[in-house]
Amino acid sequence: MQITDVRVRKVAKEGKLKAVVSITMDEEFVVHDIKVIEGEKGLFIAMPSKKAVDGEYRDIAHPINSGTREKIQSIILENYEKVLEEAPEEAVI
Questions:
Q1: Which residue of 2, 12, 28, 34 could cross-link 91, Cys pair, CB 3.0 to 4.6 Å?
Q2: Residue 21: domain span
């Protein structure tokens, strides 16, 4: 699996949510609404999720193993940093 496109939309408001990202895999499959979040230990990604009837949030789409998750997170955070370098003061959302 290759991530062939990454689209980063920075968030304008203050808070832990820094960006919302869409990735395309193998130019054939897209996952929208991946969040870039500022945590206590730095930036991380949260996969798209939905609130269930019991009040818990469950991922709608997610990697099956930690290696794939790390690969996706690394590529997303790398692209997020590039967007910050290009226009650090501008916000899209």
A1: 12
A2: 1-84
58: Cβ contacts below 8 Å, ≥ 6 apart: 49, 50, 52
Tokens of residue 49, six digits: 């999720």
Q: What is d(CA 26, CA 49) in angstroms, rounded to the nearest whole number? A: 22
State pTM to two decimals: 0.86
Instruction: Report the alpha-carbon distance of residue 24 to residue 26 in Å, rounded.
Output: 7
Tell me if 38 is assigned to some domain: yes
Cβ count within 10 A of residue 34: 21
List, for residues 3-23, the tens digit of each pLDDT value: 999 999 999 888 999 999 999
pLDDT in tens, 44-53: 999 999 999 9
Please indicate, yes or no, if residue 23 is contained in any of the structural domains: yes
